[in-house]
Amino acid sequence: FRETRHPVYRGVRRRNSGKWVCEVREPNKTSRIWLGTFPTAEMAARAHDVAALALRGRGACLNFADSAWRLHVPSSRDAKDIQKAAAEAAEAFRPMENDGVMQDERREESEVRTPDNVFVMDEEDVFGMPGLLVNM
């Protein structure tokens, strides 16, 4: 027997292909709502959170309880609406492609570039921090 459930995220399983799937059981029923197949466990966990909020409300056990306010709420408790909202939430958290460059490096490059018409002020120089540190 090989365990396929994710060790941290609720409602998430790993397929043999390496992709992650998610489904939730409807309250007071034996049926389940299939939420889809996702490339990462985090995307599947976000989909689970949307469905759990829709079906169980504020008392639902969530994978990312601190970011529940960011999730799209389905218009109804219908399975199709829940599936659509779960897919949208998962896509919103899709990781960026790496193209051979690390994401941190991309972030640093974007922070370094500034347009020519932007005024940059060195706060340490304005408040005399180098002299203050020398005097201490």
UniProtKB/TrEMBL annotation:
Q: Does the keyword Transcription apply?
A: yes
Note the InterPro entries from the entry: AP2/ERF_dom, AP2/ERF_dom_sf, DNA-bd_dom_sf, DRE1A-I
Molecular function per GO: DNA binding; DNA-binding transcription factor activity
Which keywords annotate this record?
Activator, DNA-binding, Nucleus, Transcription, Transcription regulation
Q: Where is the composition biased (Basic and acidic residues)?
A: 103-114
* Localization (cell): Nucleus
**Which residues, if any, are the signal sequence?**
none
Task: Provide GO CC annotations from the record.
Answer: nucleus
Q: Which SMART domains match?
A: AP2
Q: Where is the AP2/ERF domain?
A: 8-65
User: Region labeled Disordered — which residues?
Assistant: 88-115
Annotated family: Belongs to the AP2/ERF transcription factor family. ERF subfamily.
* Protein's UniProt name: CBF4
Per the UniProt entry, what species is this protein from, by scientific name? Answer: Vitis vinifera
The organism's taxonomic lineage, starting at the top: Eukaryota, Viridiplantae, Streptophyta, Embryophyta, Tracheophyta
Coding gene?
CBF4
